[in-house]
Specification:
The protein is an alpha/beta fold and about 375 residues long. Helix content is about 45%, strand content about 15%. β1, α1 and β2 form a beta-alpha-beta unit. It is elongated. The N and C termini lie far apart (about 65 Å).
Length: about 375
């Protein structure tokens, strides 16, 4: 199935708050919410107002900002929690309850029959309040699928807007996610949301598989921050979709990804990984001679993402032993120096020899280029 219309539920202000280094003030939450709204995400998910008195205030404050994104909050599948959520003035409420044997035994202690009755009660109340309503099973991948399908069918019959599949411990594979979502798509009419943790490195692939299978909503967070290893990163999902077809993400303000990543990295006191999707410092850097030559002739030879679409530029690294004369020529062109092919080849060999004998810098390379240009000018 090809990917159709989908929405991003951006959960930096809910799941992201569960990251070990996340301690967002209301001012910081407003900054993040405003940036995400400018980027164009369709939804912002906020921490439950039941979490703390300040969380309730934050939820109400952000719900009143007048953003384009719809504001959701996330609560337990509990009638009192649902009422408190509605009182915050949010556009929608995401309710969740654990359905795996692990959570039923060691968390809330309910049977599937009790969960079914509670789900119907809470969903019916929320729908009566005219708020967008999602019901999700926590730890879906380790739940009996027959159990969660029964519950999903029941809430779908009530008119719930979405059901959620949650890979809470990051155990799922893309094939498993595809099969679960595609089966749901055949059995229920409401929208389907996917929430995937990254404990085993499959969060982006699983989110993409969910979309291929018919999911309509994907949960993300900036830099993937969240509980333990976090969830599907916003930039990573965008990169995956862009690589399939840039048209899939044309609705978003792509150059803002860099500011989003930088802002959250600063607030949670982490570095953006060197190989981070789109915004890692090495993302659009080319080093090997054969790569540099090809990418200078046609960037798509070694770039599936166009850095210019993200407000970024590529960098051809030249100060190393793997360099080639095409890379040297590119640097000379940047400096406005005109050197012939034979000079460039000699300079490339000089740089290789220097690099073999120790680290050299771009300043060193520039000095060699300027000296060569001066010699040529003197000859002329």
């Amino acid at each position: 199935m090809s990917i159709q219309n989908y929405s991003i539920i951006e959960s930096t202000l809910r799941e992201g708050e569960q990251f070990v280094n996340a301690f967002f003030s209301i001012e910081e939450k407003i900054q993040i919410a405003t940036l995400l709204d400018a980027f164009g995400v369709e939804y912002l998910e906020l921490t439950s107002p039941l979490a703390s008195p300040q969380s309730a205030k934050d939820c109400t404050t952000i719900a009143r900002l007048g953003l384009n994104a719809r504001i959701l909050t996330h609560t337990r599948c509990n009638l009192e929690d649902a009422k408190r959520a509605v009182d915050c003035g949010v556009d929608g409420v995401d309710v969740v309850i654990g359905t795996s044997s692990f959570l039923r035994e060691f968390s809330h202690g309910m049977s599937i029959e009790q969960i079914l009755d509670l789900a119907q009660e809470v969903v019916a109340y929320l729908l009566s309040q005219n708020v967008e309503t999602r019901f999700s099973t926590e730890d879906s991948l380790r739940s009996d699928f027959a159990d969660i399908l029964e519950i999903y069918k029941a809430v779908d019959a009530l008119g719930v807007h979405r059901v959620g599949v949650a890979d809470t411990v990051g155990v799922g594979t893309p094939r498993q996610i595809y099969e679960i979502v595609s089966t749901l798509r055949q059995n229920i009419g409401c929208d389907i949301e996917f929430h995937g943790h990254n404990d085993s490195g499959c969060a982006i692939a699983n989110a993409y598989a969910a979309l291929e299978a018919g999911a309509t909503h994907i949960d993300t967070s900036i830099l993937g921050i969240g509980e333990r290893n976090g969830i599907t990163p916003l930039g990573g999902l965008v990169a995956r979709l862009y690589a399939t077809d840039p048209a899939l993400v044309k609705k978003y303000n792509l150059p803002l990804i860099r500011k989003l990543d930088q802002t959250v990295a600063r607030l949670v006191q982490v570095d953006i990984p060197f190989n981070n999707y789109i915004t890692g410092f090495a993302s659009f850097t080319h080093k090997a001679g054969i790569h540099a030559k090809a990418v200078l002739n046609n960037p798509s030879t070694y770039e599936i993402l166009n850095p210019e679409d993200f407000g970024l530029t590529r960098y051809v690294h030249v100060a190393h032993r793997l360099t080639g004369w095409n890379a040297v020529k590119s640097r000379a062109d940047q400096l406005g120096l005109i050197l012939d092919k034979e000079q460039l080849k000699r300079l490339a060999e000089q740089i290789k020899l220097m690099a073999d004998n120790g680290r050299i810098t771009l300043d060193d390379v520039d000095s060699y280029l300027y000296e060569a240009a001066e010699r040529q000018a003197a000859i002329i």
